[in-house]
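Consider the tokenized backbone below.
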């Protein structure tokens, strides 16, 4: 079969799927409700289905009121039974696969049951839908007219190309758990660039201003050590971890020195956290305190291009400006995060999130000068805070939902040259602190013929404080 024919057939098939996707976009409530009903019907005779009487649930609201918001630990015993081969706990068909995740709540590896139906209707379907949307947005695409490389996930749990990693959890006793994770990474990069002085020179493949091929190699050993204490309200943990951001090359460079390579940056993190479920699980609180110390932090530095800047003994002549990516900084970031959800009643929910940061450069090498005292960390506000609510009122012929969110953010610094910019002279290089209040009033009802109807009245940034920032 000719490749163009394959392209035409595949494109026709996938474009037909877009009609279904378009229906999802036009009728999201109906589609999601139908999906929920089908899942409940499929799982009604499982252990969970019988526990929560799935067969009698007819709407999302009933499902939300009957099935509580849960943590992994609340289902861990059921998952362990499923891992040992016991069936019909979560889904009527056999569970053969488990997705492995380290999660964010403790040091243990987590195993998420994956059914065959989930693979087919979620994971596999997502890939098809991605192709479908791409072809719909790019009707002249020749995606199938040549060779393609597909990169899929490995079935090996503890090996990747260029990396070896693993983790273990040890239950010291019923209350204490120790966790250790290690990852060793080797990487190699090749980079080539050609810069011509003119378009004619490029077409003629004449002399280049910069013709460069370089390689970069690095290795890194990272770890995460966690000690966890289980309590009657949840858990408390303390962790120490390291990480890195890969080094490489500056593709905007126009001189040998501005291309690089630059080295990897590294970070050391200490974190203390509390995860609590209180008031019969009506209040869920997460509190996290952390400190991050960055070394060899990668910074984009823009300098004059007239040769006044000398790097490695070479005057830098780049055009308008010279752009470097240097390992110029050492940064400290200390913070506190608080998140909470409180079910005041079965139909009234409050949620909040608060973030507090204390940031600063310990060192910032800008063209050979330490300007740490002249530079604020970009886009790092001292605080962010939000509080939201959702109130649902059942009516004879539908439901009324009043929801909203108030958000506040402190000022933060933009990007500037710390050797040339004088804050006392201006211009102002900070984004002002702002508040933002959004709300919506939604009425869901059903017509006499069973069709769902939704009416929504909403307002964004109704305080008009300039909190709706678009970049």
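A designed sequence for it:
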């Amino acid at each position: 079969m000719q490749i163009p024919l394959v392209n035409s057939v595949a494109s026709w098939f996938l474009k037909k799927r877009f009609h279904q996707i378009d229906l999802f976009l036009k009728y999201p409530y109906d589609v999601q409700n139908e999906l929920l009903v089908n899942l409940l019907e499929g799982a009604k005779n499982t252990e969970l289905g019988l526990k929560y009487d799935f067969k009698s649930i007819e709407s999302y609201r009933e499902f939300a009121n009957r099935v509580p918001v849960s943590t992994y630990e609340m289902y861990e015993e059921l998952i362990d039974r499923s891992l040992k081969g016991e069936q019909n706990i979560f889904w009527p068909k056999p569970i053969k696969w488990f997705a492995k995740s380290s999660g964010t709540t403790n040091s243990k590896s987590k195993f998420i049951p994956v059914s065959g139906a989930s693979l087919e209707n979620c994971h596999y379907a997502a890939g098809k839908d991605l192709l479908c949307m791409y072809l719909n947005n790019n009707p002249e695409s020749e995606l199938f007219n040549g060779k393609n490389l597909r990169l899929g996930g490995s079935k090996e749990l503890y090996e990747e190309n260029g990396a070896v990693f693993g983790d273990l959890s040890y239950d010291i006793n019923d209350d204490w758990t120790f966790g250790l994770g290690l990852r060793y990474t080797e990487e190699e990069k090749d980079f080539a660039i050609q810069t011509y002085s003119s378009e004619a020179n490029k077409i003629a493949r004449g002399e280049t201003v910069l013709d460069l091929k370089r390689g970069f190699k690095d290795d890194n050993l990272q770890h995460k050590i966690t000690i966890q204490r289980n309590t009657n309200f949840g858990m408390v943990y303390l962790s120490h971890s390291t990480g890195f951001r890969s080094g490489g090359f500056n593709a905007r460079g126009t001189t040998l020195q501005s291309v690089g390579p630059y080295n990897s940056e590294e970070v050391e993190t200490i974190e203390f956290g509390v995860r609590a479920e209180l008031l019969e699980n009506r209040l869920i609180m997460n509190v996290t305190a952390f400190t991050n110390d960055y070394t060899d932090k990668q910074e984009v530095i823009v300098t004059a291009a007239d040769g006044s800047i000398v790097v490695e003994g070479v005057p830098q002549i780049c055009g308008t400006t010279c752009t470097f990516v240097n390992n110029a900084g050492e940064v400290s970031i200390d913070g506190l995060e608080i998140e909470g959800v409180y079910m005041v009643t079965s139909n009234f929910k409050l949620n909040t999130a608060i973030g507090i940061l204390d940031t600063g450069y310990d060192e910032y090498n800008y063209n050979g000068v330490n300007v740490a005292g002249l530079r604020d960390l970009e886009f790092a506000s001292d605080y962010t805070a939000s509080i939201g609510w959702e109130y649902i009122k059942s009516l004879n012929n539908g439901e009324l939902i009043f929801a909203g969110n108030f958000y506040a953010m402190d000022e933060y610094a933009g990007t500037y040259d710390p050797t040339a910019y004088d804050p006392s002279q201006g211009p102002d290089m900070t984004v002002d602190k702002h508040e933002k209040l959004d709300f919506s009033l939604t009425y869901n009802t059903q017509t006499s013929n069973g069709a769902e109807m939704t009416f929504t009245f909403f307002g964004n940034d109704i305080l008009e404080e300039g909190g709706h920032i678009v970049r």
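The two ends are 48 Å apart (CA to CA).
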